[in-house]
Structures are given as structure tokens and as C-alpha cells.
Specification:
Shape: globular
Distance between the termini: 25 Å
Largest sheet: none
Number of strands: 0
Length: about 200
């Protein structure tokens, strides 16, 4: 389910919006992907543990994404209350899924349950209001093209996590309901997309 959300959301929600704000958002997405690729290599080299690197990369990627989400949340609320509420609903739904993903990856990497919980909670939840808090004073001066680049970067980050971590994990632990869960995640992302279009 999480794979479906995290692959669909960047491609059908964030990336078109990023391109509309900045035509170089594709380069930013590539930068985000490459950044996560080398982060993974460096963490693996430093820790000498593939599983631990796996958990840390998930934590890093989700924290970056959630921080940018907070900035988006502040911007959409400044446009209109309704668009802010709608965007906020989408953020809450997928932040919950991301928190579970991060918690699971950290547990698998050998981190204690308590530490994994609080780390996942901080990465998926607290970084969002932090991003909103930091962005709010600068909303008047925040250039749309900068937001486009930031969104593009996040797209690359999430696609890396989805393609290199989530989907391989789903295939390793494949069950009969896995495809239904994946398509349900895609359906949720599509629902959010059409809700935005017709609101």
C-alpha cells in the first residue's frame, strides 16, 4: 500500500506541480535521486551494515519529504483555507503511511522498538510543522520557482526510496493481497489528485 502511495504521489501530484512552477524541476528530481543514491552508499560504507543503512536512508528521505510538505502546507493555506484543508488531509493520510514505513525499516535494521518509534515519529510528523513554521515568515518573499525546485528534489528522493527499497521489500515478502494493496495505494493518490482538480 505504501509503495503504491509513494510511487504515485510524486509522479502524478508533486512532479506536475513542480514543473508548472519551474521548468528545471526535472533536473532537481534527478539531483534528489542521485543525492539519495550516494547517501545510501556513504551510510553503508560508514556503518558496514546494509540493514542499518536501509533504515537510515528511509529516515533521511521521509524527513526531507515531510519538511518540504510543511512548506507546501503553509503556502496552500496562504492561498485559501479550503485548498489548505484539502492539501492538509492528503498530507496527513500519506504521512501516517510514511511513519509506518520508516518505523518498520528501522526495526528491521536492528534499532530498538522505542528508538525506532520516536525516530519515525520525528521524521514523518514533527518535520512537517517545522517546515511550515520556517516557511511561514518568508511566504511573501518565497519565489514559486524555488518551490518548484524543492518539490522536484523531493520527487527524486521519494522515487529512489520507492524503487530501491519499498518495491523490492514488497516482492521479497509477496502475498496474495500485495497487488491489491499496491493498487489501493495508487487509487488513493489518484483520488487526492481528482479531489484537487475538481475542488
Amino acid at each position: 500500500f505504501a509503495s503504491g502511495i509513494l510511487i504515485s504521489s510524486p509522479l502524478i501530484l508533486a512532479f506536475p506541480e513542480a514543473l508548472s512552477k519551474n521548468k528545471n524541476a526535472g533536473l532537481a528530481a534527478l539531483s534528489g535521486f542521485i543525492f539519495m543514491f550516494f547517501s545510501n552508499k556513504i551510510i553503508k560504507y560508514k556503518t558496514k551494515q546494509t540493514e542499518l543503512a536501509f533504515g537510515v536512508i528511509a529516515l533521511e528521505g521521509i524527513a526531507i519529504h515531510s519538511f518540504i510538505d510543511g512548506m507546501i502546507y503553509a503556502v496552500t493555506f496562504s492561498v485559501s483555507i479550503f485548498s489548505g484543508i484539502l492539501t492538509g488531509l492528503g498530507l496527513v493520510i500519506h504521512e501516517f503511511a510514511e511513519g509506518i514505513i520508516t518505523f518498520t525499516f528501522l526495526l528491521k535494521s536492528g534499532i530498538s522498538e522505542k528508538r525506532a518509534f520516536w525516530s519515525a515519529f520525528f521524521a514523518a510528523s514533527l518535520t512537517t510543522p517545522l517546515g511550515a513554521f520556517i516557511a511561514y515568515p518568508f511566504l511573501k518573499d518565497l519565489d514559486a520557482s524555488i518551490m518548484g525546485l524543492a518539490l522536484g528534489f523531493v520527487v527524486g528522493v521519494l522515487i529512489y526510496i520507492s524503487a530501491s527499497h519499498l518495491l523490492p521489500q514488497a516482492r521479497e515478502n509477496e502475498r496474495e493481497h500485495a497487488y491489491i494493496a499496491f493498487l489501493s495505494g495508487v487509487a488513493l493518490a489518484l483520488f487526492i489528485l481528482f479531489s484537487k482538480k475538481y475542488s
